[in-house]
Every structure is written in C-alpha cells, then in structure tokens.
Specification:
- This is Glycerophosphodiester phosphodiesterase.
- It holds the Pfam family GDPD.
- It is an enzyme of class 3 (hydrolase).
- Keywords: Hydrolase.
- The chain is globular, with a radius of gyration of 17 Å.
- It is an alpha/beta fold and about 270 residues long.
- It is built from nine helices and nine strands.
- Helix 1 packs parallel to helix 3 and helix 3 packs parallel to helix 4.
- Helix 1 links the parallel strand 1 and strand 2.
- It has a single domain, classed as Alpha-Beta Barrel (TIM Barrel), CATH 3.20.20.
C-alpha cells in the first residue's frame, strides 16, 4: 500500500536551516531558506547546560561558534554570548545560537514547514526527547502544519511518541539496516529518513508499500534529486535549496509531479 496521506512538509527542505546559504542552525538560515523560495527546513535541537532546547548540530561548540567546550555543559547565559555566524562569513557576525522557541516563532511567521531532528548529546537521549517533544507540541499547538520529529536515537523517538503522539516521527539512518522496517514499526515512525548515498530504489518501494514516507539527505545534485523523486521519495534535504529547488520545480512543470511529491510547494 502507499502512504495513507500526502507527505506533510515541503518536498525540498533546507538542511540545518539554510544549507550553504547562511550559517547552519541559525535564524539567518531560516530567513535565507524563505528568501530562496524553499517551503521548509530541517534543523537540529540539543539541550544546553541549563536544559534548554537550542539549535546546534555538534556536541561541542568549536566548529560553529567562537566558543569552546561541550554544549551540554554550557549554560544559557554563556551560550547566548557566543557568535554563531562569523565562522561562516563576516556578514553574519553576531548571529546567535537560537532557542527552539525563537526558531519555532520564526518558522511559523515565515510559513516554513519543519523537520526537527532530536539530537541528544551522549547519554541524554531520554531527557532531550522529553524536553524537545513537549516543547515542540506546545510551540506548534494550533498550527496547521506541525513539525515532523526525526532522530537517529530510537529511544528518543519512543519517548517522543509517548509525550507528543500527534507529531509525526521519522527514523534516521545512514545505510538502512536489514531490520529497518521493524525498527520503524517499533518506534512508531511514519517515515524512514536515509542517507542518499546508500538509498536504493527497492528500499523506497518497500517503504512506500509498507505505508511509510521516505525522506533522504543530503542531496545537492539536482540530477540525483530528480532521480530520487522519480523513484518515489517524498522529500529531499539539501545544502543547496536554491539550486535543487529551482531544478526540481522545472522538472515538475515539464513532466508533472514525480512519484512521491506532496502537496506543499518547494
């Protein structure tokens, strides 16, 4: 059987807020994605040392801020003092590590659909999922298009299912393991999110027959994106939302909707 309803998010999502258009996991990235015409974004949420949900990918601060040390040991007041934009380009100097509250408000105001990855620091799967799932449910309460929660952590997805059952969930994998379908069933995932380098057509077909959506990351080549959509994926996550979105839009207009396209705009 095919998924019971259309993929709820935009079919092309900007990776880590804005892909390569802005510093990752920042409010500037959300603005860049919207300006590029992208209808949705993917971003990572981890807990600070104060237990607050914030947007950041790494467990340490050094790559994407001017700080040092572990995110999970950095209190909010110190995290807020860091520059999260200058590393990318001087134009973004002063950009901060945003809170989930700030990102949700900006996404809602910009009309961006959201794939929120629950990104626990080591040993914090349960706690991170509890905080993030609850807060996401509150922040998007009453919004027509709530976020989809994804994670590599199966424990985090199980916790999210208990606390925010109304939010759809996706199991993140690199190469799909032999028991990927059983794992999706066990955590109540509505979607399989797989690395495009290892995703094949047979897995996509099997997932869709099982009633699952399929999202894939990180696809920066327009030709590869078109092939994956033709195979039946529902969503491409990309660092180049400007290039991929434009190419896919042209492809859709010339050939009609490829298999797997949802109803949202790119």
């Amino acid at each position: 059987m095919t998924p019971p309803r259309s993929w709820p998010l935009a079919p092309v999502l900007a990776h880590r807020c804005g892909g390569l258009l802005a510093p990752e996991n920042t409010l500037a990235g959300l603005a860049a994605a919207a300006e590029a015409g992208c209808g949705g974004v993917e971003f990572d949420v981890m807990l600070s040392g104060s237990g607050s949900p914030v947007l950041i990918h790494d467990e340490t601060l050094g790559r994407t801020t001017d700080g040092h040390g572990r995110v999970a040991l950095t209190r909010d007041e110190n995290l807020r003092a860091l520059d999260a934009g200058r590393w990318f380009d001087a134009r973004f100097a002063g950009e901060r590590v945003p809170t989930l509250d700030e990102a949700a408000a900006r996404c809602i105001s910009l009309g961006l659909s959201v794939n929120l990855e629950i990104k626990p620091a080591t040993g914090q799967d349960d706690e991170t999922a509890r905080v993030v799932a609850r807060r996401a449910g509150e922040l998007w309460a009453g919004v027509a298009l709530p976020p989809l929660l994804s994670s590599f952590s199966e424990l985090a997805l199980e916790v999210a299912a208990q606390l925010a059952a109304h939010l759809p969930r996706g199991l993140l994998v690199e190469r799909a393991p032999p028991d990927w379908l059983q794992r999706c069933r066990r955590v109540g995932a509505a979607a399989l999110h797989a690395d495009a380098r290892y995703l094949d057509r047979s897995t996509i077909i099997e997932a869709r027959k099982a009633g699952l959506w399929v999202a894939t990351y990180t696809v920066n080549d327009p030709g590869r994106a078109q092939t994956l959509f033709d195979w039946g994926v529902d969503c491409i996550i990309t660092d180049r939302p400007d290039v991929v979105r434009a190419s896919v839009t042209r492809h859709r207009s010339s050939t009609g909707y490829p298999a797997g396209f949802g109803v949202q705009s790119c």
